[in-house]
Amino acid sequence: MLSEPEHSVLVGSLLGDACLSKNGRRYRVRFDHSASATEYALWKYTLLQRICCRPRTVAVFDKRTCRHYYHIRYDTKSLPELEWYSDTFYPNGWKVVPSSVELLLTELALAVWYMDDGHRRTDCNALRLNTHGFPRSDVERLANALHSRYGVHTKLHQAGKSQWVLYIPSRSAVLFCEIIRAYVPPCMGYKLL
Q1: Which end of the chain is more exposed for a tag (fewer CB within 10 A), N or C?
Q2: What does each C-alpha distance from 164 to 89, 143, 168, 182 come to in angstroms?
Q3: What DSSP state is assigned to residue 184?
């Protein structure tokens, strides 16, 4: 396993926007952020630079809008240590919430996951974690881990036919923000209450 903070950043990123794939005999993790999140992408890179290749700007074509959008992208090196992350997060070839997620959710991992996939509600003092890519049972596992480890209460909200998000009501949202505040760089402070 990797050292801290590398391990926690990878855990939070794999719960969020990052993806892991095989590159030859080894695995690598890809980080891809919109150009508007460049400062955040580079903050994350500084925590991982020992194991990552340099960030680059890429143009991504969106077929829906027929436009190019610029992203900051970088990958980890292909490392034997990443096999554990593959076994844990991709046991059957697709991303899952591991059964050990409660133990993996350090404050830094929680902060990275929220910065990747969370947002502050503008109509109330609540938060939302976008968990669209996970089945309901995995989202429930995340909800249970947040409550058991940190005392954060959440509600599952349906966001599509078979998609679910975690809603964090105002009282727990304040607690959640206090837990992660020390790990959130100034460029992402707008996501906090």
Answers
A1: N
A2: 19, 11, 13, 28
A3: S
| 89 Cα distance to chain centroid | 12
pTM above 0.90, yes or no: yes
Q: Concatenate the DSSP letters of all residues of 122-135 into one string.
A: SSSS-EEE--TTS-
Backbone angles phi, psi at 94, to 5 degrees: -130, 155
Place of tokens 């707008």: 190
pLDDT tens string 19-37? 999 999 999 999 999 999 9
Paired with 28 in beta bridges are 21
Structural domains of the chain sorted by starting position, each given as residue range(s) with its CATH number in brackets: 6-89 (3.10.28.10), 118-191 (3.10.28.10)
Burial class (CB in 10 A: 0-12, 13-18, 19+), 180: buried
